[in-house]
């Protein structure tokens, strides 16, 4: 019996062949190109993987070889990873916006021999680094614009590689034989961590890890064949790999790739997906959009929005507490559905969505509650790279903004004596690539994965993540201090893009804030405040007054001991290129604390300003230094009326 007739679905390539056999002409992937959605069926995907795998073999790619993909989300880049796995190789997606030093580290550490790049921009970046990449043999490009006719010997077009595989004699038997050799325990992917505490680590994920996790998730969540979602998150992020490769292949759902990062919002509205996957930063941006549009509306529309927003929030709080909803509130909500909530959902692209997911980092409960209150079935998931991206998720009817839901079916969790969450199950990774010592440190003596997160399990079995265990501390009076909780509260403000809170072993909480350039810029323009740059805008006294008032409002929702007492407005945005945040926008706290040590000293030394000297890294690796004296502001306890429109 040939593999095409086999029930074996133990690897991702075998699942693609199963889908081609069972679902055939059903849509597997779509890509928007020059304004037109182009569809690939499961049969098309299997054929592409078949021919590309043989073409890769012709280039010397075999078992245990490493293939990397770099670029925006494209069907060809997803399928290239499956094709590599079909030859017994390993896929390593990398961040498309990574700077030179980051790329060199990952590509060399993983010993990548073939890179499949989206376009000329990515090809040029790789070519500029080739002297530092001794393992690299071939660069295969998808988009030929600017590259067709190139004499560079290392370059090949994806079209030519696929064509070579199509011409291969006896190809079908060879391809199926190689796929049949694949085993569940084989490494499918090396997913590099975000590196919040140092160099990224290569997480070895097997086919068993990825498929087992996806099957558990599909078992507990309503993912159906024909479901659509927009794949716009970095392919190097393990969450995208889990959903756009594993969950899609296991469930038969359809993955849609936007035309470009700039068209994501428009493509989302046009597609009207049944499922929406987005990290907290996207939800915060969407909330900001809604708040800005409401602020720019006429006085009557502002009052209507404010009234029905309050109605929705009161109703959501009652639902959350399982309390009856009064008739008057039900009638008001029904009217709001027609006048406010449905138009907002349509504007954001959620008109057909059954549910939506946020994950990758905590989402503030206020932001979370807002979207649920207007009729978006937003749910949180929690996971980490070492657990194949998914550990827990919220079930319909059991959604609490203060938890991340219940563990996946078949996954065990427990809380260690020090409060750290421990995990055990089929999704737990094999180990770190070429880092046996780090692997050993990540597991307990009896085989539990140390997540590094401080957590609690409530009486209903819901998992609550407090913060990274190493970041949870106490003020000098013993008050518990969880910086992420305070930061998420602050980021509910549309004027605050990022916040970093300090307070461990200190007498009070202080924070550095990066303003939201677009929102604060619009606010300034409406008031006739001229500015020339981010730095100029952040230094305006009027902007400082605006942010202080926002913080005062947020302070009113915090316990008195953990309210923000002092703040500083950064003169630049936090940037992954400067190592301040990861590519997934997680703060590198230890690095930031060292880099902005003068600010922390000024916060707690009673100074009114701080001398800041920060190094800025450009994409090509060049560096520059930015020196500035930045004012530090005290936050009064009472809210003023300074921002009256």
Keywords:
globular, five-stranded parallel sheet, Luciferase, domain 3, alpha/beta, 21 helices, Rossmann fold, 4 domains
Can you tell me about this structure?
Strand 27 (609-617) and strand 28 form a beta hairpin. By secondary structure, the chain is an alpha/beta fold. The protein is built from 21 helices and 28 strands. The strands form seven sheets. The protein has a five-stranded parallel β-sheet, with helices on both faces. Helix 1 (12-23) packs parallel to helix 9, helix 2 packs across helix 6 and helix 2 crosses helix 7. It has four domains: 3-274, Rossmann fold (3-Layer(aba) Sandwich), CATH 3.40.50; 277-351 and 353-380, no CATH class; 383-466, Luciferase, Domain 3 (Luciferase, domain 3, Roll), CATH 2.30.38.10; 473-634, ANL, C-terminal domain (GMP Synthetase, Chain A, domain 3). It is globular and about 80 Å long.
Give the helix/strand layout:
Elements: H1 12-23, E1 27-33, E2 36-41, H2 42-58, E3 66-70, H3 75-86, E4 90-93, H4 100-109, E5 114-117, H5 120-127, E6 138-141, E7 155-157, H6 158-167, H7 171-181, E8 187-192, E9 202-206, H8 207-220, E10 228-230, H9 238-251, E11 254-257, H10 264-271, E12 275-278, H11 280-296, H12 299-320, H13 327-348, E13 355-358, H14 365-373, E14 378-382, E15 392-393, E16 406-407, E17 412-415, E18 420-424, E19 431-432, H15 436-442, E20 449-457, E21 463-468, E22 473-474, E23 480-481, H16 483-490, E24 496-502, E25 509-515, H17 517-526, H18 534-538, H19 541-555, E26 564-569, H20 589-595, H21 597-604, E27 609-617, E28 623-634
Parallel strand pairs: 1-11, 3-4, 3-5, 5-6, 6-7, 10-11, 12-13, 13-14, 25-26
Antiparallel strand pairs: 1-2, 8-9, 9-19, 14-15, 15-16, 17-18, 18-20, 20-21, 22-23, 24-25, 26-28, 27-28
Helix pairs in contact: 1-2, 1-3, 1-9, 2-3, 2-6, 2-7, 8-9, 12-13, 12-14
């Amino acid at each position: 019996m040939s593999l095409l007739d086999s029930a074996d679905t133990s690897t991702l390539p075998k699942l693609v062949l199963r889908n081609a056999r069972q679902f055939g002409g059903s849509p597997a992937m779509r890509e928007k190109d020059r304004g037109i959605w182009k569809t690939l069926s499961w049969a098309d995907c299997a054929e592409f993987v078949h021919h590309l795998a043989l073409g890769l073999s012709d280039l010397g790619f075999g078992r245990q070889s490493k293939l990397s993909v770099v670029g925006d989300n494209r069907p060809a880049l997803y399928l290239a990873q499956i094709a590599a796995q079909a030859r017994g190789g390993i896929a390593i997606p990398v961040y498309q916006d990574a700077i030179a030093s980051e790329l060199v580290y990952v590509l060399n550490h993983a010993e990548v021999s073939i890179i499949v790049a989206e376009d000329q921009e990515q090809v040029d970046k790789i070519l500029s680094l080739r002297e530092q990449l001794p393992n690299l043999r071939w660069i295969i490009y998808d988009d030929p614009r600017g590259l067709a006719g190139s004499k560079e010997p290392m370059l090949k077009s994806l079209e030519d590689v696929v064509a070579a595989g199509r011409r291969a004699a006896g190809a079908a038997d060879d391809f199926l034989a190689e796929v049949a050799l694949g085993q569940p325990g084989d490494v499918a992917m090396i997913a590099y961590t975000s590196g919040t505490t140092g160099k990224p680590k290569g997480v070895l994920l097997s086919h068993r890890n990825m498929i087992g996790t996806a099957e558990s998730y599909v078992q507990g969540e309503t993912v159906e064949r024909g479901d659509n979602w927009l794949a716009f998150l970095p392919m190097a992020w393990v969450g995208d790999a889990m959903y756009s490769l594993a969950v899609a292949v296991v469930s038969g759902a359809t993955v849609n790739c936007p035309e470009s990062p700039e068209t994501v919002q428009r493509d989302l509205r046009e597609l009207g997906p049944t499922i929406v996957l987005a990290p907290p930063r996207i939800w915060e941006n969407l909330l900001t959009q809604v708040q800005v549009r409401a602020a720019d509306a006429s006085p009557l529309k502002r009052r209507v929005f404010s009234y029905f927003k309050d109605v929705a929030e009161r109703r959501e709080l009652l639902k959350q507490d399982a309390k009856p909803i009064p008739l008057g509130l039900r009638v008001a909500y029904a009217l709001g559905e027609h006048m406010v909530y449905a138009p907002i959902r349509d504007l954001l692209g959620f008109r057909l969505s059954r549910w939506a997911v946020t994950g990758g980092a905590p989402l503030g409960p206020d932001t979370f509650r807002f979207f649920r209150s207007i009729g978006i079935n937003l749910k949180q998931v929690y996971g980490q790279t070492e657990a194949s991206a998914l550990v827990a998720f919220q079930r319909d009817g059991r959604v609490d903004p203060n938890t991340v839901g219940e563990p996946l079916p078949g996954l065990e969790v427990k809380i260690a004596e020090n409060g750290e969450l421990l995990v055990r199950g089929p999704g737990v990774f094999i180990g770190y690539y070429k880092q046996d010592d780090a692997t050993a440190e990540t597991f307990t003596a009896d085989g539990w994965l140390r997540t590094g997160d401080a957590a609690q399990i409530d009486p209903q079995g819901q998992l609550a993540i407090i913060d990274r265990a190493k970041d949870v501390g106490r003020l000098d009076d013993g008050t518990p201090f969880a910086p992420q909780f305070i930061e998420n509260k602050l980021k509910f403000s549309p004027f605050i893009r990022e916040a970093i809170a300090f307070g461990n072993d200190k007498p009070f909480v202080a924070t550095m804030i990066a303003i939201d350039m677009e929102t604060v810029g619009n606010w300034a323009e409406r008031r006739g405040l001229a500015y020339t740059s981010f730095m100029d805008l952040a230094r305006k006294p009027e902007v400082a007054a605006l942010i202080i008032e926002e913080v005062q409002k947020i302070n009113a929702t915090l316990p008195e001991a953990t309210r923000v007492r002092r703040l500083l407005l950064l003169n630049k945005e936090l940037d992954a290129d400067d190592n301040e945040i990861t590519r997934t926008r997680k703060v590198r706290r230890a690095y930031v604390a060292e880099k902005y040590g003068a600010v922390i000293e000024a916060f707690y030394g009673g100074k009114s300003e701080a001398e800041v000297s920060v190094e800025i890294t450009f994409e090509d690796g060049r560096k520059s230094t930015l020196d500035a004296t930045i004012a530090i502001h005290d936050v009064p306890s009472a809210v003023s009326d300074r921002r009256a429109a």
